[in-house]
Records
---
Amino acid sequence: MASAQDTRPPPSVGLFATCLIDLFRPNVGFAAVKLLEKAGCRVTVPRAQTCCGQPAYNNGDQQTTASIARQVIAAFESFDYVVAASGSCIGMIKEHYPRVLKNDSNWCDRAEQLAARCHELTAFLVDVMQMREVESSFAASVTYHDSCSGLRELGVKQQPRMLLSKVGGVTLKEMEDSEVCCGFGGTFCIKYPKISERMVSDKTANITATEADCILGGDMGCLLNIAGRLKRQGSLIKVYHVAEVLAAMTDQPAIGEGES
Amino acid sequence: MQRSTSEFKHQAEVALQDVTLQRAMAKAKGGFVDKRRVAVARLPEFEQIRAEAKAIKEHTLAHLDYYLDQFERKVLESGGQVHWARTAEQACSAVLAIIGGSGKQVLKGKSMVSEEIGLNAAMERAGHTVVETDLGEYIIQLADEPPSHIIAPAVHKTRDQITALFHAEHEKYGLTELVTETEDIVNEARQVLRTKFLSSDVGITGANFLIAETGSTVIVTNEGNGDLTQILPRIHIVTASIEKVVPSLDDMTVLLRLLARSATGQEMSSYNTLSTGPRRADDQDGPEEFHVVIVDNGRSEMLGNEFHDMLRCIRCGACLNHCPVYSAIGGHAYGWVYPGPMGSVLTPLMIGLENARDLPNACTLNGRCGEVCPMSIPLPDMLRTLRFKEHERKLSNARARWALKAWGWLAQRPGLYQAVTGVMTAVLGRIGARAGRFRSLPLASGWTQVRDLPAPQGATFQRLWRKRQ
């Protein structure tokens, strides 16, 4: 965190909202803003953003992907950093935009430069902003799902756990196979629902076996999938994005829970 | 083998309902993963060996013609013969010509390339009897099934199933006792196979490696049956694909260190056997004839193209063992010889993308296969590249393509996108507020048939953020 003697201007962060947070869970977006501001960043949410382009990319449409990539780069390249509360979308921007645009001489350098400044939220807070304290409390036992892109493309593993350990009242109960895919996989889960069902059921069984009150994770796709399956199974386990817990913003009903 | 790759989705759904298969898969999954993890953790230089292995394979592929020539020369020098086959048909013809005649009893050790070229069927059509000698292959031969895993062909079978199978099939040898313990099952197979070993005319094996500097072929097994297959019959035929060649014995040892650890979590497989030419005058045993059939079957086209890296594959099966989709459905659902991630790349390249459209898509791109691949093959990237090709060739589902196109169009117009999504989430948010989720929703059955859809909170983040500013 910026120290008192630090005279440098606060770093500017362009928040990539991500389409799923934008549509389903704005609370996570606000939690991310709160955490980033707490860490001393000046946060902007560029208007010209929709989605990172993964639906097109992973369904084979390179042309649409490239257009969306250019749109994201143009909207975000003026910031010191680009941060999203999603390993999946940051993985896309960081790892894949340079590849998507590698034959486009005007854009490949810009893609590379942006890639170097992109961070998943918890990794950014811990690794870049050196956040070591969290002002939040959450009296619950939680288990953590490591989303695949964040884990394997970006190395997000310890950062959310370290931050969670600073939240008052939280006990972490690790599940079996926390690093195994939950069966979301973007459009995979609607193209192959039965295979996805098996995978997410394995995941919810591992979650349930921990006897934790709550399952947390860093990617809305996985969390919607896991919450949807848990609710279908009649489970009472609550699902939150890790940012909501870290920012003390769990006053909203959990993912998939109603007002009643 | 019979191909049913276009039935993937249906086969996967059947496999998910197959209680016995699910029991066998559940048992296998953890074993492979845990053993590999322990083996890799015990070898601090694993990453270094991995890099070295990749370099060896890349060097070899860059000079493939040179090393294959050298290999051929060395085989000839040691008194063996080399047969080149561009296609599966040519490879089968070459093997049949070596065997000659009809009505021979042929032993076969485990060889995935022989499955790929359909060798058993070709030999049976020519009137020969084929006996698989690898225990797993023997079991599935009795069951008249293809392998479901590249190193554990019968991994989909439970012990109870094998007991029943042996009971039914071994009665003709006078073995009528019901064997239920693993050791007894193995002993019974040994008894039956031993008579075959001593009475066969030809032994066919695959090869994990071909050593250019010595003209040796290498097999790696845990049973020793492969050794008997290549030593006892009069003729030994090796079927191997072009990318199996490595320059030297030193190179082989590097790859062997990765292979066993990645495959079974062993530091070394029990038998690592080199065959160099036929029996020499002062040898106590060995075949009188030694033939190597080297198969291309589409591989040379992969050299230098976007699937080049796939030619580094050493067939360890780690990508299968770590693939959550493979673990859920088993190997048969994939519909051809090579299942799992490596198969989902190779199969479309070998039989045509139009015949295997589902395979590159039936993957969440979770990256675990690429992470464990000892040869650092970027499997997820290649699966995605195949999706690019499907899209270009319009092989993907037309409705999905149109939906994607509409979404893509909207996603490139942020203002309009935000207006549309703003209305959508407001409506869904209002309807879903009380329950917090939807049990079903028009146009979302792919999602809601297996899980609820959490309701949006009501307004989009963009809208709320602008309001707050």
---
Amino acid sequence: MSQALLARPGPCLAATWLTLALLLMGVVLLSVLLGAGEVGPSRALAVLAGSGDPEARFVVGSLRLPRTLVGVAVGLALGVAGALLQAVTRNPLAEPGLLGVSAGSAFAVAVALLLGASATTLRVSAAQLGALAGCLCVLSVTRLRGVGSDPVRLVLAGAAFSGLLGSLTALLLLFDQRAADEIRFWVIGSLSGRRADDLLAVLPGLALAAAIVVSIARPLAALSLGERVAAGLGHRPGRVRLLVIVAVALLVGAATAVAGPVAFVGLVVPFAARALAGPDIRRVLWLCLPLGPLMVISADILSRLLVAPSEMPLGVLTALCGAPVLVAVVRARRMPIL
Amino acid sequence: MSLFPLARDATAAKRAPALPPPSGCWRLAWQRPGGGEASLLITRRSALANAGLLLALLVASGVYLALGSVHLAPRSLAAVLVGGGDPVARFMVIELRLPRLVAACLTGAAFAVAGCLMQTLARNRLATPGIIGIDNGATAFAVASVVGLGVSLAPPAMALAGAATAAAITFGLTAGGGSRGYRFIVAGIGVGAVFGAVTQLLLARVDMDTANAAYPWTVGTLNARPAGALLVLGAGLAVGLAMALQLSRALSLMRFSDAVAQGLGSRVGCRRWQVLAVSVLLTGLAVAVAGPVGMVGLIGPEIARSLSCPRGVPIVASALAGALVMVLADLLGRVLLAPIELPVGIVTAVVGGPWLLWILLRPHRSLA
């Protein structure tokens, strides 16, 4: 994060934001036009123009459009959640997937499925509860002396925690064939076959999280100057932190409930946003809005096209482009300070 | 167990009266064929630890052979083992359970020795091959071989190549900062994530049957493992253990700083390559048999270190402890929820995860 980028003036941010938004619209259009099946871009375009044959109409309207919208929601949620978690732990590596928040939410969903829950809304709240528990674990670990002050060690603890929860989830799935079948493809993260119901089920959580984020953006920016400065400016750090954690849990839980645990989006998106916008959390959050969906939907398009006619899990692609970013951050001689 | 030859020189032995062994050690002396006397110092605590671990391993093996979907009484198990017994029990023990027991012992020992070597090399208790991504690399390559991706190498060879690739990438990426500290490990986690994603990618491309055939590679299990890979592992483990024992003195110097090791006459750079090579060899071969059972590389050396003498690097004890852990974990997996069989990788992860977190999170303790 060079000094020049840090001092970038405001209008430039708006230009960047607009460019990214335009890019996002282009990618969304591509996501509707392209697919693994037989409906090619020209037939899909005809549907968008209002005509088109019934098959293409079905594919575009009932398969690709909901899937793309779910992808937008997931990208928004994960990108913003990553930025928030990084700001509140002051750790550039704090990513919901890496720190075990997504794994906690996946574990909660597996438990809920095992206990008989099947409705999507129930699954969303279970995932959000699990994410909340995961977030609280992360936050309490960052308060420990030794681990909390070392960003890299926190990631290690998170990886251990995720691994443990992942095996516990696998263990639970051994008991119940029905749940295993239902969850097997969900657990590696994918947008395949998502419907409009899924989107509706996560919208309340996302809306609540958005309200929280808007209300705490300013105190959170103050918090990045240190707890005492924030308190001196009239904010209450403890309350802010708690609200951030709730927002992260709502976002990650919603994203995990529809798409499964998708790692590394919350790392890459805020990383890119910081590179473009500088360290101010409010500007970073603004840029996360187009960047998150951009990454998720691009990954989803690739996952459809690379191994057509079959599909690849979304998490694979995000890991392939996210892990190098992780290594780059870790390798940097001076870790970016948040 | 540390072996320190005391006096090789016949004349020296004649001139000086035999020294009393240092406290806590036994001195083992014998006449050399050419005349003169040779002696070995054996640390008492390490010897006792190894004997205890061996005994525990034997007991666990007995229980392993006796328990299962059909339980055998100790007497009928003994009858089978000495060559008699009724045919059904004989078939079950000799044909089904014994190969699996051997696989558990060999893979456990290989994972644990590889972990012990890597921990010593990186001077960090958490730097086991499973954590820094070497397991994942081996798995990805082995899966590529299973799903028939152009390459006609057998899974063990591919797993070795994968382990070497992952190790090379991890060490190459952190070459500037040295192989120490958490950055190294987290870079390894990143490399591991990439290889994990590659494994998933390979599995996503193939049809359901092939994916099911490759499933053991993703969790780590000992069920019906290929005999060929097991043989290769046996040979590799013998070679690897011999090399590791030969390196044990250099390793015990390596635990200090590089400068100290160099000053005491160890060729640090060369030794480091050798240690890394042995560790990669053992990891690759073990993954080719059992899949990624990462936690054994953490738990085995951990047990060995707490039991053995703190001076040396407990290689033999690590091997024994790793085998013991693997046998117990697989026994648990088979018996605990019968008739459902838990893959051994899940059992070790559920047991080892909290342990890893405890090591990581406990305050005021260095990890070196």
